[in-house]
Known about the structure:
Oligomer: single chain
Radius of gyration: 20 Å
Distance between the termini: 60 Å
Number of helices: 7
Largest sheet: none
Amino acid sequence: xxxxxxxxxxxxxxxxxxxxxxxxxxxxxxxxxxxxxxxxxxxxxxxxxxxxxxxxxxxxxxxxxxxxxxxxxxxxxxxxxxxxxxxxxxxxxxxxxxxxxxxxxxxxxxxxxxxxxxxxxxxxxxxxxxxxxxxxxxxxxxxxxxxxxxxxxxxxxxxxxxxxxxxxx
Length: 169
């Protein structure tokens, strides 16, 4: 009996349980946030498809679609005036970059800014999650640096997209 209690309350077993619970939570979140593809196909056949719910062709945009669309809805309500002016000034630049990358049908300039904010949130979470899974501890001092990296990772992805599209594989 004492061996069973030692196993149940060992740090390794608790870590396994913690990672299993976080895995189940992520699966449930993904299942809840992402629309059912069969249901979307049925709606499309019936002519009931909404433009904002259409499936995205680019996997990265499809995965984070529920998050960045909600962020896009919150930005005009909660963002400071300077941020809104910055977004207005950057719209033509992002529109041009989206056209060059051939993704203007997938995402608009305002949504792209929301996608950048989404990446600034998701990348630090992934750093801490995978760092913890590998046994590394990441200092909270690095959070702002990782957030900036996440914010600009969307720009890097957008700049590299036309380069990869032209390369024959």
